[in-house]
Amino acid sequence: MPTFDEDDTGRNWAHGPQIAPEWLLNRGVYDQQIVRIRDLEYRVVAMPGMSNAWGQPQLFLYPHLRGG
Question: Which of 1, 3, 19, 52, by CA, is between 20 and 30 Å from 34?
Fold first, then answer.
């Protein structure tokens, strides 16, 4: 599981559901991957019907619930 800390996230990181930030996308995360950011686990989810300016799926982060 990829793990990221304050050196990766910078100072203005806030936990919770959100659009995957640019620094995370630049590290090659993919749909349904579980990542650990500042000691909390998140699932990376591609939203159906949403894409970025390059036609790639828009990725979001959601807190990962055990067993979910």
Answer: 52
